[in-house]
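Table 4 source record.
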Amino acid sequence: MPNGRFAPSPTATLHLGNLRTAFVAWLAARSSGSQFFFRSEDMDQVACRAEHEESALRDLHALG
């Protein structure tokens, strides 16, 4: 079974489009009995910030 994955770039806080993408990936994983993974795409070391990654995890956790 394919897993669901959400991999935002932590260059800014999440917006509604990010949350919609995460929800669709989570829903697809849940409906197929797969796992959902969060992976931070921190390839841009200049623009990426740890506080944005932490904020994204807090936001997703708050939504369930």
